[in-house]
Amino acid sequence: MSLLRRLYRGERRSTSLVGAGSDSVSLALVVITIVSLFTRGLNLGIDFKGGVAWEVPAETLTIDDVASVLQDNKLDVSTAKIQELNGADGKRIRAQVGDQPAEVRTSVQNSLASKAKVDAQDVSVSAVSSSWGRSITEKAVRALIVFFILVSIFISFRFEWKMAVSAILAMVHDVLLSVGVYSVTGFSVTPATVIAFLTILGFSLYDTIVVFDKVHDNTKRLSASRASYGDVVNVSMNQVLMRSLNTSLAAVLPVLSLLVLGAGVLGVVSLQDFALALLVGLLLGAYSSIYIATPILAVLKEREAKYQSRAGQLSLGEDMLKLFGVQRADAETSRSAGAESPRATVTTDATSVASALTHPPRPRKKRRR
């Protein structure tokens, strides 16, 4: 049987998905994220740290021209963010700097208008205070905490608390590494980025619930086989691996279209922040649901007395196929029982009816001689 066919049938038996070196990879990425956050920090957008942004028509203007205008007004160009935007109203250049007095805003606006040979009213100016940015940050953190609490309650009610802990740790892993990507690359963090982060948490949770549902089902089916919980998790992940990959691929393709075509080719930079965060989160969510959440669940469950004696045991090769054989046998038995149950019910009902309508024969009377 080919590898692709075994993947789609969930019978990839040569290696284990539990403890497949994912803990070392994730630990290394987390360390890189923490170091980057302490050394580089995050490139917070104007909505979070406050500042001023100018947008000017750029039919005859270049980014270097805008940078020279900022320098002439004694603004630090090295900390400024200058972007070229493409939209329905033509090409525009946007420059963002820290908070500035009103006279500086007006001076830069007039200088940009003069440089671009347009009216001053054609140069838009937007200013955001740092207090408003702090308010957005607090609301985002509050929403994240509420989301984690509700998810924990739902998973504990639907499955068990150990699955809830595993799912929460996987989502924290996703958020932390997503923030790390923005810290390492220096991409700007905007409100659209925060919205995308909350969106990808929902996707990551969905993928994790799919795996946990299969684990929960196989725990019942393999309870009589004396299999370790690592075997239950490994078999379950093999069965849903291609489903998770296909779902992730179907979600990543339109996001790539937004990022490459929308932001890259068409120049709609407003889509870049949202699409980039979605792309990073979708990839991390697919990874964590298989390589983070379920291995953590296996570690927690193997501490139970029921599985403690078999902790660390993993069935590979033909031994894994035997576990699949047990499941297929259970499925065939269930289908057979389901198919025969109506017939059995009829027979039983017929027997009971016959016994109710008949009675033993009466003893014959002895004839008198």
Model description:
β3 and β4 form a beta hairpin. The chain has a four-stranded antiparallel sheet with strand order 3-4-2-5. Helix content is 68%, strand content 8%. The chain has two domains: 204 residues, Up-down Bundle (Multidrug efflux transporter AcrB transmembrane fold); 78 residues, 2-Layer Sandwich (Alpha-Beta Plaits). By secondary structure, the protein is of the alpha+beta class.
Share of residues in strands: 5-15%
Order of helices and strands: HHEHEHEEHEHHEHHHHH
Report the strand count. 6
Which shape, going by the Cα principal axes? elongated
Q: What CATH architecture label of the largest domain applies?
A: Up-down Bundle
Q: Output the radius of gyration.
A: 32 Å
Which residues form runs of ≥5 with pLDDT under 50? 339-359
CATH T-level topology of the largest domain: Multidrug efflux transporter AcrB transmembrane fold
SS class: alpha+beta
Total number of domains: 2
Number of helices: 12
- CATH level 1 class label of the largest domain: Mainly Alpha
Q: What is the makeup of the main sheet?
A: 4 strands, antiparallel
Oligomer: single chain
Strand order of the largest sheet: 3-4-2-5
